[in-house]
């Protein structure tokens, strides 16, 4: 239901005095003249500009785009098209074991599809999840009947108008009724590049979300920023980050000059389980961990001063959410913590906040 997905109704935009232009994309940006040129030839002047151009699904060269049963998942129309293909008993091949691939696999199994999940790497969601959680998710998906194949290389697909099977480099053939490709996102930086703004893997910004051009800001999936002043640039492709940066860039466009210090985080629901993270969790092995109810686990990552930098939890239902929220408060507090207390499931995280 597209209406239910709208963040703000047209009537509300009108009440706020916001002019909403559609079907007339920006073709070029003039940072020196503070003007935009639209597709119909009109120009719009600006005093402050926010680039929130998002991204598009990354495509695979081995798979022709015209095949009617090959799906990417980024837009509302793509979601509707995929929904029609998830038929009980159908054979679904998913390429890529990031969160798109994993969540589609879980949903498809719940709908009775036969699911084969192909991943080029050695583990699930390897770029963003700790190894221990990745292996736990692998067990979870296999327990639910997903045929997970790791370290596989895609050769292409067989079929003319429709994909009839997926061909791997080692010669194996995987028959299919539908294919979902979930291999990441391509940020929409073309407008920024043409305008001469600094870019890397996204549009680069300072700690106040300003780009390299005066009066131009960037936010969301397309925004590349430093989590720490001494750290490298990164993009956060999460709902949480897009919302936080949208609010923060608006404040700074109004002259508040506030550094963006939001702690990153994300969650993913698969079957009856939820994986949730906050902060930075991938730089080292976990410093401490504790068992959670029903076989769940909570991992903690500390810096050299024993201050919490990140946490990752996997638990049944939404039971880990409270712990993750407390971990976020501990990250912000920057208080040295005891590893033995973090390891002890009887020691309340709320108690550590009082130390």
Features:
355 residues, alpha/beta, FAD/NAD(P)-binding domain, five-stranded parallel sheet, five-stranded antiparallel sheet, 10 helices, 23 strands, 25% helix, globular
Molecular structure report:
With 355 residues, the chain is of the alpha/beta class. It folds into four domains: 1-46, no CATH class; 57-185, FAD/NAD(P)-binding domain, CATH 3.50.50; 189-267, FAD/NAD(P)-binding domain (3-Layer(bba) Sandwich), CATH 3.50.50; 272-353, 2-Layer Sandwich (Enolase-like, domain 1). Helix content is 25%, strand content 27%. The chain has ten helices and 23 strands. The chain has helices at 2-5, 10-15, 76-85, 99-110, 131-143, 190-194, 239-253, 321-333, 339-343, 349-353; strands spanning 26-30, 35-38, 43-45, 49-51, 55-57, 70-72, 91-95, 114-118, 147-149, 154-158, 165-168, 173-175, 178-181, 185-187, 203-204, 216-218, 223-226, 233-234, 265-270, 273-279, 288-291, 297-302, 308-316. The strands form seven sheets. Strands 6-13-7-8-9 form a five-stranded parallel beta sheet, covered by helices on one side. The protein has a five-stranded antiparallel beta sheet with strand order 19-20-23-22-21. The chain starts with a helix and ends with a helix. The mean pLDDT is 94. Keywords: FAD, Flavoprotein, Oxidoreductase. Residues 266-353 form the Reductase C-terminal domain.
């Amino acid at each position: 239901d597209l209406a239910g997905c709208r963040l703000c109704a047209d009537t509300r935009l009108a009440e706020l005095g916001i002019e909403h232009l559609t079907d007339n994309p920006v073709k070029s940006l003039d940072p020196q003249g503070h003007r935009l040129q639209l597709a119909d030839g009109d120009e719009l002047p600006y005093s402050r500009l926010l680039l929130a151009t998002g991204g598009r699904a990354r495509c695979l060269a081995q798979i022709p785009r015209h095949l009617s049963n090959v799906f990417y998942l980024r837009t509302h129309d793509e979601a509707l098209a995929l929904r029609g293909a998830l038929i009980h008993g159908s054979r679904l091949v998913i390429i890529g074991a990031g969160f798109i691939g994993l969540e589609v696999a879980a949903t498809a199994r719940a709908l009775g599809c036969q699911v084969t999940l192909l991943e080029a790497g050695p583990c699930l969601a390897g770029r963003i999840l700790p190894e221990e959680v990745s292996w736990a998710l692998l067990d979870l998906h296999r327990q639910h009947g997903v045929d997970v194949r790791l370290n596989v290389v895609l050769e292409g697909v067989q079929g003319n108008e429709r994909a009839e099977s997926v061909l791997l480099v080692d010669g194996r053939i995987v028959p299919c009724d539908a294919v979902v490709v979930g291999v990441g996102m391509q940020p929409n930086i073309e407008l920024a590049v043409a305008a001469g703004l600094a870019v890397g893997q996204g549009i680069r910004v300072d700690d106040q979300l300003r780009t390299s051009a005066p009066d131009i800001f960037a936010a969301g999936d397309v925004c590349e920023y430093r989590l720490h002043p001494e750290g490298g640039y990164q993009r956060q492709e999460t709902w949480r980050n897009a919302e936080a940066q949208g609010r923060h860039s608006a404040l700074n466009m109004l002259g508040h000059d506030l550094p963006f210090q939001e702690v990153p985080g994300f969650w993913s629901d698969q079957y009856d389980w939820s994986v949730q993270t906050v902060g930075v969790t991938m730089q080292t092995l976990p410093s401490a961990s504790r068992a959670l109810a029903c076989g769940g686990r909570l991992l903690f990552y500390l810096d050299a001063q024993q201050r919490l930098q990140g946490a990752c939890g996997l638990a049944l239902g939404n039971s880990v959410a409270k712990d993750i929220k407390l971990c976020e408060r501990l990250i912000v507090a920057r208080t040295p913590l005891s590893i033995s207390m973090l390891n002890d499931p009887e020691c309340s995280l709320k108690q550590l906040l009082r130390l």
